[in-house]
Structure formats: structure tokens, C-alpha cells
Amino acid sequence: MMLRFLTAGESHGPQLVAIVEGVPAGFDIDLAKINGDLARRQKGYGRGGRMLIEKDEVRPVSGIRFGKSLGSPITFIIENRDYKNWVKRMSADPADRGEATPVTRARPGHADLAGVLKYNLDDIRDVLERASARETTARVAIGGLARQILLPFGIDVLGYVATIGATEANTPADLSIDDLRGITEESQVRVADPEAERKIIAEIDECKKSGDTLGGIVEVIATGLPVGLGSHVQWDRKLDGRLAHALLSLQAAKGVELGLGFNAGRIRGSALHDEIGYDAAHHRFTRHSNNSGGTEGGMSTGEPLRVRVAFKPLSTLMRPLRSVDIKTKAEAVGAIERSDVCAIPAAAVIAEAVVAFELAALFLEKFGGDSLTEISRNLKGFQQQVHDY
Asked: Per residue, what are the HEC states of the chain?
């Protein structure tokens, strides 16, 4: 069973669309929980005015009946409430072309310049609308669906903030995923460190006054994973590679690391590698540490997965950087679009959704079938095999 998705829609178009194919039959689909994830994406100190306009909710149009998946493609539509202010400017009718003023000043750091050159366009809006992080609304809905595929098998996924700007949160290492969720969801910037939260809010306020933006690093953890998701046998089947590919596809993502990540290149092997033990009472292999972040050889080890993603600051600055007008070639400053000062708390929710989808896809590849009953039977057989090894 292959789980895959497509998204469609522009930032100020009428709606976003998400199509997910490969969801087996028989899974409970709770739309309220998916909408809850969409609401989480809209929160966070430093968000802009768009979040005051939108109230993102999914409208299912296929693949779900009476609260359960049918095995056919699932389609969600998410309305863009702001579209009412852009009807003529985003119209598909050529008669409305004169209603829109072309955007010709490219923003450093955005898809603007590379996009118009690649597609031979003369209006940057033809690029920026689809390149916008508004697209991640659909991905969060897809991730919310994926979480419900993982839920019956005891797999949980959570994203939270590790760093914003110059401030790194001191996240307690002994918190359970439920406790960490409770603390970070109450934080305005999704951190588990009140002192760091105060410093981050102060820096966001400072950037807002100066017309600047802030990036940061988010961490996603997943618990309850069985050993053996992914594979060592081909490059495109490795768990690490799948996660990195998916996470780096997110707008503004610039780096991914698992476990100790880049620090693994700074220490000796004797200090890095996770020593192996055996719990005879429970008939299972154990690890004395988890520096690898829950993966070895492109496969899950059964330990908690830990992956971090670095996001650059947003490209739209209220005090724009130097640029060039693509039409006149004259020196200019980057265009200003409505934007956030800091979107890292939202990025944690988005990264969580992306990881959930990749884990669900790999889980179905390993234990797949056409129904929840069949998958459960396959998983139970594998767990017995591991127990008896």
C-alpha cells in the first residue's frame, strides 16, 4: 500500500485542496481533531494579520463515510476566507487581467526571482501565490489524517520549538510526550522553558519594531515506533532520507538533523554510538542511549525518533532589502506582502504533520493491507516474530 498526496491552490485563491491516496479502509477519521491541528498552526506569538482573517477547517468531499475511511482517495477542501478581497485580482477570467497590479520587485530569500525566470513570467504574483507557506495548511490537514492512521498502533508524534533567534529553550529531557505536549501547547511560542519564552517574545517585539523577521529550529519526536520502518537496501527507502526529503520540502526549511545531528561529526565514535542491551524479562533488545535519534542504517530502532529542522527568517521584511525591478531592471527594494514576524511556533506544527505523514507511509509499506483489520494482523505477526527472535 503506497500512501501519497497532492496539494493544490494559491495563497489568495478560493481554496486549498488536499488529495490523499492509499488510506486503507476502516480507520476512524475525526475531522474535529484535524481542525484542531489547523487551529494549532494558526497560533503563535509573532503571527501576522492573515491569521485574524482565516479560520481554517477541512471539508471532506471524498473517501470518508460515516466517520470511517473507505479505502478510496480522501479529498479535503479548505476555504480561503481572504479570497473575497482578491476575487478580481486572482480571477481565472482573462477579462479581469486589468484589475491586478503586477508585482515586479523581487524579495531576497523568496521564490520570486528564480520562479519568474524559470517559468518566463512577468508578474511575481504568479509565483509567490503558490510558493507561499499558506500551502502548509493543506499539509497540516494531511498530517492530521496521518496521525489518525498511526493512532490505533500506539504511535504518537509531537512538534515543538527548540530555538527561536538567538534563544535556545532548555527542554527538560525527562518529560513524557504527553507532558511535553501539555506544556508547549500552553506556551505562546511553543517552548517548554518559561525563561526562554520571555526572551523570545522580547526579541520578536524588537524585530517587529525594526521591520525584521526571525527564524528558528523545531524538534519533532515520535514514540511507539516498531523496529524496522524504512530499509537499508535502497537509497530512497531509508527512513532518514525520507524524513529529510519531506522536511526540506517545507517553505523556508534550510537544514535537517536526526539525533545529535551535526554534533555527531564533532565527537568520537565511543561517545556517539548507542550501546545495545537485552531485556530478558520482556524479550527485547534495548539501547543505553539514543544519540542516533531512533534510526540506524535507514531503519527505525524502536527508540523514540528525534528530528530537528532549521527554518530561516521570513523573506518579507517591513524594512525591505535591496533588490531589482524585474521589468525596468532598476535598483529597488523587495516588495512587501502581508506576513509574519516569526512563524516558528507554526512551523513546529507543520513539521509534526510532515513527519506523521512519512511515518504513516512507511508504516503502511511495512504492514500494509486494504483495511485496518488486515494491517493490525500483519503488525501483530511481526511483533511476535521480533519477540521470538
From this structure: CCCEEEEECCCCCCEEEEEEECCCECCECCHHHHHHHHHHHHCCCCCCCHHHHCCCCEEEEECEECCEECCCCEEEEEECHHHHHCCCCCCCCHHHHHHCCCCCECCCCCCHHHHHHHHCCCCCHHHHHHHCHHHHHHHHHHHHHHHHHHHHHCCEEEEEEEEECCEECCCCCCCCHHHHHHHHHHCCCCCCCHHHHHHHHHHHHHHHHHCCCECEEEEEEEECCCCCCECCCCHHHCHHHHHHHHHHCCCCEEEEEECCHHHHHCCCHHHHCCCEEEECCCCEEEECCCCCCCEECCEECCCCEEEEEEECCCCCCCCCCEEEECCCCCEEECCCCCCCCECHHHHHHHHHHHHHHHHHHHHHHHHCCCEHHHHHHHHHHHHHHHHHC
pTM for the structure as a whole? 0.95
Using CB atoms within 10 A of its CB, is residue 160 exposed (0-12), middle (13-18) or buried (19+)? Answer: buried
- Distance from C-alpha of 96 to C-alpha of 116, rounded to nearest angstrom: 21
Q: Residue 147: which pLDDT band, with cuts at 50, 70 and 90?
A: very high
Here the cell at position 133 is 507557506
Q: What angle do CA 353, 354, 358 make, to 5 degrees?
A: 115
Report CA-CA distances (Å) from 149 to 26, 96, 153, 178, 350.
10, 44, 8, 19, 17
* pLDDT (tens digit per residue) in 297-326: 999 999 999 999 999 999 989 898 999 999
Judge whether residue 338 has pLDDT over 80. Answer: no
Report domain extents, the chain: 4-259+294-388
d(CA 239, CA 236): 9
Amino acid 336: pLDDT? 86
Mean predicted lDDT score pLDDT of the chain: 95
Q: For residue range 18-30, what is the model confidence (pLDDT) as tens digits?
A: 999 999 999 999 9
More confident residue, 334 or 364: 364
According to CATH, the topology of domain 4-259+294-388 is Chorismate synthase, AroC fold (3.60.150)
